[in-house]
Structure to design on (89 residues):
């Protein structure tokens, strides 16, 4: 899920420089929000700042792994949908 609870879907590549700038700004806001949320979780678990940093790094890894997994599932689902189009189920 995205920062606002929407499903992660591929976005079209921005065509103009301004569109690219807006997309990058939006991603940086998302990244900052996620970093804050992950840091809050780490602080709940320990007061040791070194361990907090390690926890945040591992949570980012899980977050990205989940995103890749979801994208693969979406691709498989989309492909299966295309293969069954026009067939009675």
């Amino acid at each position: 899920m995205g920062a606002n609870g929407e499903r992660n879907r591929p976005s079209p590549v921005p065509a103009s420089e301004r569109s690219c700038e807006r997309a990058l700004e939006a991603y940086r806001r998302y990244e900052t929000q996620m970093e804050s949320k992950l840091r809050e979780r780490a602080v709940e678990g320990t007061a040791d700042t070194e361990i907090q940093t390690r926890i945040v790094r591992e949570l980012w890894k899980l977050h990205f792994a989940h995103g890749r997994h979801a994208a693969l599932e979406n691709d498989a689902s989309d492909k299966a949908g295309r293969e069954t189009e026009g067939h009675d189920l």
